[in-house]
Amino acid sequence: MPSGPWPPRDDVLTDADLPGLWRELGIPGAIDVHTHFLPTPVMRAVWSYFDEAEANYGVAWPITYRWQDDERLAHLRAMRILRFTALVYAHKPGMAAWLNDWALEFAADVPDCLPTATFYPELEARDYVGSALRRGARVFKVHMQVGDFDPRDHLLDPVWGQLADAAVPVVVHCGSAPLPGRFTGPGPIGEVAHRFPDLRLIVAHLGAGEFEEFLELTETRPHTWLDTTMGLTGFMQDLRPFPEELLPRLRAASSEGRMLFGSDFPNIPYAYAHQVEVLLEAGLDMSEVLWGAPARLFGVV
Q1: How far apart are CA 206 and CA 215, in angstroms?
Q2: What DSSP character marks residue 52?
Q3: Nearest to residue 84, comparing CAs of 92, 93, 75?
Q4: Which of 289, 285, 290, 281 is nearest to 3 (CA)?
Q5: 64 in a domain, yes or no?
Q6: Which of 181, 252, 267, 279 has the most CB atoms in a 10 Å sphere around its CB?
Q7: Does 90 map to a domain?
């Protein structure tokens, strides 16, 4: 599909338009690898943090889809998002195991949700990650800035090894945008990726903060993908603009199946369709990004 204007123009698509777009692209729907469903107290805490975004990020971050779980599920299904995730992540010890229990029970009741889990560097991590895998977890999530832990921590060696052996991918927020952390950037997670070459690594947000470095990692390392979450949106262009000169390489990565659609739904300050619109305008291989690559990765038919 040809590239369009850059930076992206104002929204043209609406959420209601998306099923028709999928038909035009010849795909049955879309797979969103980066959505959030959380225990109610945790989601409320997340929303409270975004309510203070002007203090935390220097910009307002109104939550567009501040709805109950059942309303958000209905909206995803109305848009024909045929698979999605319930990404959970821990920021302190003793949190990951109960988040995993919640997320796996949620997925058991919501069959179009890919069973999701997380971990934190602690002695129990080996056991609860193994338990989550036995219970059917198909994707994990960690957040280097919020979690504030070093992915090279020796307590995580058995975790990375288990995930590599199981061929279960992990979505990692490892870029330094919108806020840097002590262990964000390509260095720490890059060392893990080198030490565990079979680890299936999904770099969230196109690696925002270090777009080029994480794009290069995706180009040069097998079992590595970028998720598109927020990366090309108008909102992100105001915070950390994507370099226009990298667009040809990004288009190539999309055609090679190295990019996966992600949204950060519901915690986004714009309409869901905006993210699809900007990917269209950037000239990405939309059928691959929205369906082909994630369907192969997760075995969706």
Answers
A1: 7
A2: T
A3: 75
A4: 281
A5: yes
A6: 279
A7: yes
CATH of the domain at 273: 3.20.20.140
* Range(s) of the domain holding residue 151: 15-298
Euclidean distance between CA atoms 104 and 111, whole angstroms: 11
pLDDT tens, residue by residue, 135-159: 999 999 999 999 999 999 999 999 9
By CB atoms closer than 10 A (0-12, 13-18, 19+), residue 39 is middle
Tell me how long the chain is.
301
What does the block give as tokens for 17?
Answer: 């338009």
> What pLDDT is stored for residue 11 in this prediction?
54
* pLDDT tens-digit readout, 65-98: 999 999 999 999 999 999 999 999 999 999 999 9
At 84, which helix (H) or strand (E)? strand 81-85
| Short-list 163, 156, 104, CA closest to 135 | 104
Q: How far is CA 158 from CA 18, 90, 243, in A?
A: 41, 18, 37
The structure's pTM equals 0.95
In a domain, 1, yes or no: no
Euclidean distance between CA atoms 22 and 46, whole angstroms? 31
Q: CA–CA separation, 59 vs 276, rounded Å? A: 23
Q: How far apart are CA 297 and CA 167, in angstroms?
A: 9
- The reply to whether 5 falls in a domain is no
What's the total number of domains in the chain?
1
Q: Which amino acid is at 192?
A: V
Phi–psi pair at 229, nearest 5 degrees:
-50, 115
The first and second tokens of residue 190, run together, are 């890059």
